[in-house]
Amino acid sequence: MKVLTYAAGMxxxxxxxxxxxxxxxxxxxxxxxxxxxxxxxxxxxxxxxATAKDLQGSIDAFLAAxxxxxxxxxxxxxxxxxxxxxxxxxxxxxxxxxDEWEGRVNxxxxxxxxxxxxxxxxxxxxSDENVYFTANIVxxxxxxxxxxxxxxxxxxxxxxxxLHELDEIEANVTTGYHAIEFLLxxxxxxxxxxxxxxxxxxxxxPAQCTHGNCDRRAAYLKVAVDLLVQDLEEMTASWATDGAAxxxxxxxxxxxxxxRILTGLGSLSxxxxxxxxxxxxxxxxxPEEEHDCFSDNTHWSHYYDQMGIxxxxxxxxxxxxxxxxxxxxxxxxxxxxxxxxDLALSEALAATQERMGAIAQAALDGEAYDQQIxxxxxxxxxxxxxxxxxxxxxxxxxxxxxxxxxxxxxxxEGSDSLDNPAAVFQ
Length: 426
Description:
It is a single chain. By secondary structure, this protein is mainly alpha-helical. The protein has 17 helices and four strands. It has a two-stranded antiparallel sheet. Strands 3-4 form a two-stranded antiparallel sheet. The longest helix is centred in the N-terminal third of the chain and has 35 residues.
């Protein structure tokens, strides 16, 4: 019943789209726009925290009584938790507090052999880039780390925090959504074919244990979700009335802070989403380059990343449960200076959201994102490329909005897949 409700709700989100609403405020100031921005950030991180707590409860229930049904409930809770969190990514790339924190909860891709068992035939047994490629924390109560031995009789929050991005290797991801995703789904061994990861519930069953170390695997999953909740509590508080992230937005020169907002939107739109998360995987036709690669949930991750951009520009966020947070927006400021620019950007945002919806609808119809980027799927490739083109177009319109507001030129994050494609194949 929950799965049906989830799918129906997502289909409704595609069909409804969005309609930017003008603010009712008589006078829109930079300060009022920044206030809306901070309010939406607080609400979106708050929803991320609430859904992470739901995930925590589902995982606790699963570990207390492992079964097919309780594992599926935990997987569904993970997917639902991604909906608000992906919308928070519009607050990256301009807010230092967020940028320094974000890797703890959403770093990817990860070398999953650091965490647990893998299929060595597909995954490999070693990596020139990462000596911890198959360290397998779950299986080893003592880890050899650069000439020293780390005793790990118990898997704790402190331990996985300590090992996260070990030796400054970005693929050594031990915390956050994607570590939890791997522990729930396991590897997706289907390549560009149908099917996601298929970890059995018995990997956590003390009496019917498969693949060994079920007690340590359960401990890892438990501390990982507890740490996720703890990290989201920290960021939600940072956007509250007396929080550091809100203060950083509200204090200082208004125009500089406004430029920071648009930097975040442009960088997420261009270098991160169009480039690293979409174009790279499409160029390589590589399912390992999809964002939620274990669960095949990538279509929704992209869809809600785009929705987060829309939320910030229009000053309007629909909370989990339906309440609306809205106020004076960047769109209002641009419209007051250059109505044609605001219209062009609003239309570009809507077009991209529609194209992301087409990718999601194809996934609902049975063609997952990793299938859509496969090298023999011309229609799927075209669908993904259309969304990338939409992101590129809306980035140009974001730059036009910057010019209309007479802000300094933004330093938007780039990507080799867009700026230097030949480097991808070197």
